[in-house]
């Protein structure tokens, strides 16, 4: 599963601006660069809104987070079906 991180370019290097758990040394990754300008203000707002969630889940593994998301989606779909 991929992840989106916020980073800054400094002296020709990409530096994450938040804590990130990297894959093992030597793992190939795909990096997509998008300038975080005013057109991406929604990203900054959303990023700020989810700061408490990121802090709460910092010690969780990606698998545990994926499981929590899957359970939440399943619960939401079940509730939605019950109301329609």
List the helices and strands and how they pair.
Elements: E1 7-10, E2 13-16, H1 41-49, H2 51-56, H3 62-83
Antiparallel strand pairs: 1-2
Description:
This protein is mostly helical and 84 residues long. It has one domain. 44% of the residues lie in helices and 10% in strands. It is built from 3 helices and 2 strands; from the N terminus they run ββααα. A two-stranded antiparallel ribbon has the order 1-2. A hairpin with a 2-residue loop joins β1 and β2 (13-16). The protein is extended, with a radius of gyration of 16 Å. The chain starts with 6 loop residues before the first strand and ends with a helix. The mean pLDDT is 84.
What's the N-to-C terminus distance?
A: 32 Å
What's the helix count?
Answer: 3
Strand content: 5-15%
Elements, N to C (H/E)? EEHHH
Summed over residues and divided by their number, the pLDDT gives a mean of 84
Shape: extended
The percentage helix is: 40-55%
Q: What strand line-up does the widest sheet have?
A: 1-2
Structural class: mainly alpha
Provide key terms for this protein.
84 residues, mainly alpha, extended
Give a summary of the structure in a few sentences.
The protein has 84 residues and is mainly alpha-helical. The protein is 44% helix and 10% strand. The chain contains 3 helices and 2 strands.
């Amino acid at each position: 599963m991929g992840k989106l991180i916020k980073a800054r370019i400094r002296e020709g290097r990409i530096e994450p601006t938040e804590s990130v758990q990297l894959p093992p040394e030597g793992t190939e990754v795909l990096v997509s660069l998008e300038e975080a300008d005013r057109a991406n203000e929604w990203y900054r707002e959303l990023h700020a809104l989810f700061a408490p969630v990121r802090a709460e889940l910092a010690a969780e593994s990606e698998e545990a987070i994926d499981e929590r998301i899957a359970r939440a989606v399943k619960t939401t779909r079940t509730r939605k079906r019950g109301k329609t």
